[in-house]
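On clarity, I found the account of how folds are encoded harder to follow than it need be. Since the whole study asks how a given chain folds, the encoding of that fold should be made plain. The format is easy to grasp once an entry is in front of the reader. For illustration, here is how one protein appears when written out as sequence plus structure tokens.
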Amino acid sequence: MSGGPFVEGESCLLLDTRGKQYLLTLDPSLTFQCDMGQIRHGDIVGTSEGSMIRTSKASPMVALRPRLADYVLKMKRGAAVVYPKDAAAIIHWADVEPGSTVLEAGTGSGALTLALSRAVGDRGRVVTCDVRGDHQTHAKRLIERFRGAVPANIEFRVGDVTDHIAEVAPDHLILDLPEPWHAATVGADFIKGGGSLAAYVPTIPQVEQLRSAVSATKAFVEVDTFEVLMRSWNVDGASVRPDHRMVGHTGFITVARRRVKEVRDELGDAG
């Protein structure tokens, strides 16, 4: 949500003059404190987004609503998250669009779930599965903190995703699992024709096993594996150089599109 004054209970991102960010959940009974001084949460509630707030040491800070990328990187997560750079690539290359039905596993801390919910819009549906109920409980809290409430287009299910693929019959099956090949094999029969499979894994042996399983189904075309590297640049007048640190390897993304059975039988291993 953008525009309008900050209200109690919503997230706020404070930005200091050094570019450092601080993520708060606004509670008028609390006080934020850092080396730049203190700010009472109550002094932020009621102000407009983009306002300057001064600390107890007169240091200026700008109060903003966090972007989804800000929130994902700063939130108190439990399970590891899919980084924004990877979530953007998954949504783009899996071609998740408004109105899509997406089946996701596992939920983890809910970072990718939030991004998928935005991508499918009000007409779409995100069914997110995790074998651990505690992960989903934590994810719900984090999603509520960012969105105010769990969006109506998100449905949580505890259990093995393979038990839900046939019933959901998704347009897109998105997997962030240690062994995604099991779900990929089942998904070969139930992802809608032209729909997509996308899997996110950290290691090459996992990629190899996944690609082998995908190939064995003879159900997919346009199978591709890649990683996304992100390097920011320092631009200060005539001084322009790449930053000394970058966000390098976080995971490998494999995407594929499903072809219908009749085409699968005719083409065999082609594609």
User: Anything to note?
Assistant: The mean pLDDT is 94.
